[in-house]
Amino acid sequence: MKATLTAVALAAIGATYGARAAAAQIETDPGPVPYDRLVAEPNGTEVFIARPDGTVLRAKGAGEGPPVILAHGYGLGLGQCNIVWDELLSRGHRVIAFDQRGHGRSTLGSAGVGSEPMAEDYAAVLKHFDVRDGVLVGHSMGGFVAIRAVLDHPDVAERLGGLVLASTWAGRILDGAPQSRLQGPLLKSGLLQWLLRSRTIGLLFGGFQCGVRPSPTMVSVFTDVLVEHFQRHGSLPDVVRASIHEDRYPRLAEISIPTVVMVGSADRTTSPAHSR
Q1: How far apart are CA 175 and CA 270, in angstroms?
Q2: How do residues 171-203 score in pLDDT, each as one tens digit?
């Protein structure tokens, strides 16, 4: 028994030092964009869109020209798109982004945060800004909801001339994604919020989201924004369950809008298999 306990203790010590070494390595990698730039709010006109269930969506718009609508991922907000926002404006686009319900400064009404009310929010945002022939860009959770919005809301499809699905899925997110099999239960249980209090765990978790050579600045921004989200809104288990259990792969052929699908080859959370 003593030998077994000693082996377990040594393994735990080794794992702790290994984790700290990996986290330290992340901190030494260069970051191309400074922290303040990555967390800056996009410049634009801010509006608030009331939904029938009491949800109030915060949105921003700026520029003139062909419209691009940016839908962010889980735990983030419209600030996620700040660098892309400026690039699109410089290329002569009208740019629109919004905080998903239960994210950022958008509130959460009685309909909750499942894919159905979120898809209806997309329709409301496009209508509010009177979008015509726009391109909807959905990243991660934003793309998952965009697929439902396009499939189930003809008024969404009618307002779009293009769709971009970035690092996303059409349901069954755990398929072919070992990291998601771990993250899913952590998110649903609320345990991830507690784990992220550790600097080492936060660096490792954020690093896994940010490619082969993660920028420490990007990792810090990601974990800081996620911790703030958990403090303000909680883990939103309904949308996590929807991502796991819903399945729209059999319906993808119904999408007639020209669509670009993109994913990073090193993406561990939204497996490239989903994009294929």
Answers
A1: 10
A2: 999 887 666 666 666 666 666 766 766 767 777
Q: Which residues contact 154 (CB under 8 A, 6 or more apart)?
A: none
Mean pLDDT of the chain: 85
Residues of the chain with pLDDT > 90, as a percent, come to 59
Q: Which helix (H) or strand (E) covers residue 85, if one does?
A: helix 82-90
